Amino acid sequence: MDGPKVVFQIPGTNWIITETLVIGWILIALILIVSLILTSNLKKVPETKRQVLAEMLVNFVNGMVTKTMGERFKNFAPYVATLLLFSVTGSLVSLFGLRSMTADLNVTLCWAAMTFLLITYHKFRANGFLGYFKSFCQPVAFIMPLNVISEVATPMSMAFRLFGNVAGGMVITSLLYTALGTLSKFLHLSFAIGPFTLNVASLFTPAVLSVYFDLFSGCVQAYIFSMLTMVYVSSAAEPAN
């Protein structure tokens, strides 16, 4: 599987802008516009379906955060909502022929790194500077290397879990398209229509798989990533024994 394409390079620098960044900017703009539409002219008692939908979404995220992390972490709802929404939309763009943002390891590593910073911050806050480093020597000092590896593995596992599922789906779908295209040519069911080629054998099956990998799997993995974020952060806020 090829990486994201380079859209353009900033003149006079080595900075490149990939399709992942462009798609991300587009999603940010679209999410902002939708958010402004849903939250404009709100009433104390909902009078429109738009406000009802907005309140349903807010209540869903607030309920998920308080049930998973506890009431004292309810201020985490905006962060969790951002992760969940950006991850879902970043995966679903592939339904429109665009490359999934979550199929770019840089994206999932960035999200995992942000969560890791929050985890580390809450560990420092709960245990203090010395207590944080002391926790690596528990329950016995000689397993400190294993505890350090476990600490570093947390963001890596989160990033590769989300990236691997989405990227794996793209690879499987691409391989299937290639195989069915070859089968169509072998059975003489491949027809050239101008610059395009119609492979009869690949008309329906890949589309079904694409819906599964892009829609179902993308939403599930976004939910799992958000849940892991909440679990790790709330656990980090508990003082070490």
Describe this structure in words.
This protein is mainly alpha-helical. It has one domain (61-236). It is 67% helix and 6% strand. The protein has six helices and four strands, in the order ββαααααββα. It has helices at residues 19-38, 49-69, 77-92, 105-134, 144-186, 205-236, and strands spanning 6-9, 16-18, 190-193, 196-199. A two-stranded antiparallel ribbon has the order 1-2. α2 (49-69) packs across α3 (77-92), α4 runs parallel beside α6 (205-236) and α5 runs antiparallel to α6. The longest helix has 43 residues, at 144-186. The N and C termini lie far apart (46 Å). The model has no long low-confidence stretch (mean pLDDT 82).
Q: What sequence of helices (H) and strands (E) makes up the elements?
A: EEHHHHHEEH
Hey, roughly how much beta strand do the residues contain?
Answer: 5-15%
Radius of gyration over alpha carbons?
22 Å
Q: How would a crystallographer describe the biggest sheet?
A: 2 strands, antiparallel
Distance separating the two termini: 46 Å
Report the structural category: mainly alpha
Number of strands: 4
**Could you report the average pLDDT, rounded to the nearest whole number?**
82
Q: In total, how many domains does the architecture comprise?
A: 1
Number of DSSP helical runs: 6
Estimate percent helicity.
Answer: 55-70%
**In terms of per-residue confidence, which ranges show pLDDT below 50 for 5 or more consecutive residues?**
none
| Biggest sheet, spatial arrangement of strands | 1-2
Shape: globular
